[in-house]
Amino acid sequence: MTAELVRGQNHPLSLHQVEIRVTAGTPVLALVSAGDDEGRLAGPEALAHPGARILPGLEAPGAAGARHRFPLDLDAVGAAVHRVRVVLALPGGGPARFGAVPAPHVAVAAADGAEVAAYTVTGLDSESAVVALELYRRQDAWKVRAVGQGYADGLGALLTDAGLPGPAATALAAAALAVDTPLATAASAAAPAAARGPAGEGPAGAPAATAIDYAHPRRRRTTEPPEPAPTPEAPGQAGAPPRPVAGDAGGWSMEERLYNQVWGMFEDLARTVAAYRSAVDFADSRLDRELDDALSDPSARLTANAARDAARARRDELVARAQAVLDRDLAQLRAESEVVEPALPAAYARWDNPVWHGAGAPRESPLALRLGDLSLPEAPGLRVPMLMRLPLERGLWIDNGRTGSEAAMAMDTDRLRRLAMDMAVAHAVRLLAVHPGGRFCVHVIDPAGAGAAALAPLVRSGVLAAPPALGAAGVTDTLERLTRRVDLVQMAVRAGAPAELPPDVDPADQLLIVHDFPHGFDERAVTRLRYLADEGPAVGVHLLMVADRDEASAYGPLLDPLWRALMRLSPVPDHHLADPWVHHAWTFEPDLPPQHSAVLERALEQVMTRH
Amino acid sequence: MTVNMTKGQAISLEKRGGGTLTAVRMGLGWQAAKRRGLFGSRTREIDLDASAVLFADKQPVDVVFFRHLQSDDGSVRHTGDNLIGGAGQGGDDEAILVDLQRVPVHIDQIVFTVNSFTGQTFQEVQNAFCRIVDETNGQELARYTLDGGGAYTAQIMAKVSRAGAGWQMTALGNPANGRTFQDLMPAILPHL
């Protein structure tokens, strides 16, 4: 029976001699890369492409075509190879993006022809290269995973992401794509391909450029039927936990399902750790009690040692059982996290997620935003995305004060401030990138210009509505404009005519980054800021303060309500956030772009092309 | 097959065929008070509450009741407070679900209680019952009839306790008085 995989899902492979089948509505190139345990390629020779078809254990097709079948022997790929990826790329001369052609279908088949697992690569848009499948080694067994990660910048970007240096990746991509498209084979193969086109997108020959999207660009399509939910397969043997699948939760869209799944994982982790802590507390208190009893009973003095040992053994036995249960639950959550993280959309994804290399103008505003990662000491390495619904109900406050936490104490002030500002910029870029063009707008108040270095990417790319506001005059001016916007939108909403705004009022959601507060603020500006913090979120004006509370201590308790109204985040790991169920103190870690990564710049470029 | 349990009777929650129960539900149902003809909103409603207390070695560790609907570890869940009762046709108006596999290792007994929050005694309540259901297949394991009982406002219904690798249930059916589970603690302790 064929397992139809959804994006992020994996499936065990009991056979090691398999055939890879590709069916597409248009000629595509099928390439195979052989990577290490992180999927990185040792060099250009690790890619099988029409110019160099043969790698140990596999042979890639020699030309572009609408159908491919090629063998793969996983026993022969070499011990250093842990991840074999099937890559599809559009050759030049045909459609330039996968969004314009029917969704390609890839399958892994056994030697007898029966398909073991199959995956339809849906949801692609302006991508021209895509990692369709990944066959990977997991504890001496092989598995196949539906990846579906596309790259709008093409094969070169895909190869760069797989660890090849820029120039080598570009050269290799050019070499792989430099094949003539054999039109004859494509035409003859296109017909059967279209006939079994999985998504029913019509004949493959339909000119894609004329595809018209009738959806209103700004309307949320609530009447459309919900996307099909992935169905976790029935567990192979009774009692074994089902294999986790990305999107295994309720919701109308994949985005909503993933949001609910992440919150489900968050709750499960909180509760399973609560059970463990409760058991250990109980074991410890029982040990204390039993030790006290052993000591206080004079008649049992001779046997006190034995009683003490027995009490300790009882404690250890209970803790060991609690630990076993915890380990079982954590293993399940880790497996789930492993399939969920790669499937997350940009708004939820870590900055090192390849989804940031994918295409794409978002069509709708996102449901939620990732603010960072949460973890507990009992579960090292298991990091739950901290997702908050948009529009944010509360403003954000990135605390760059050193007295906030131990990690901040250990860091010098300049570095901490820079980190805090980098974090603010990363949040601003994320918000801009995940909103459709023209639907989000960022303002910056940086009275002393102290954040100029961190703000440079925003300023350089031209995404800001205006250059960062400097000095007291800049502060007053920016706050006045945003206050006016809040007032006007509130009035319009109250009058029942939210669309009737003066033409100079931008209907987009706004983010105001305030650096160095209260530098440059007078009493009036402070009042305005508090007003924005209170009234802004309801009408789409968000506040992001990067501030040290101690510096505003001159205002005394006057500002306490302001700080309380904001959600405090820290630029260094800190334990100040509690979950809503059992109130553990979670370690918050900010998610910053990897060092020397150009992901922010790339995202900003894409934002600019959308305007 | 439903067992109409008598006081003190213990049944093992092991399934025939070797498997043990993995999830049970304690359901509570009763018939709402008759509507007053005029000013119906001033009907003297009957509010019964189901609660579950989790014990480790005779010490209460966690409680699931209408103000704390899920145990911290997530294994015991209350489906929500019903303030007026239902049709009295045998459906559950309040339910507590126990995922026995997820109960923390140190919890060895879970005691189920029923209280009359609005103060009516069980003599005044119509068609009140409490039952234990195997949640995996909906089969009723045990049932108690509450109405027609004495002038009590609470009852300690049953306890589920560890027995070997599995669980067993003991019917307690002990009448008591109290508004919430806190009032019942002294009455519960002798049964542990």
TrEMBL record, chain A:
InterPro entries: Stress/Tellurium_Resist (IPR051324), TerD (IPR003325). This is TerD domain-containing protein. Residues 194-249 are annotated as: Disordered. Belongs to the CAPAB/TerDEXZ family. Coiled coil: none annotated. Residues 64-160 form the TerD domain. It holds the Pfam family TerD.
UniProtKB/TrEMBL annotation, chain B:
InterPro entries: Stress/Tellurium_Resist, TerD. Residues 1-179 form the TerD domain. It comes from the Bacteria. This is Export associated protein. The lineage of its organism: Bacteria, Bacillati, Actinomycetota, Actinomycetes, Kitasatosporales.
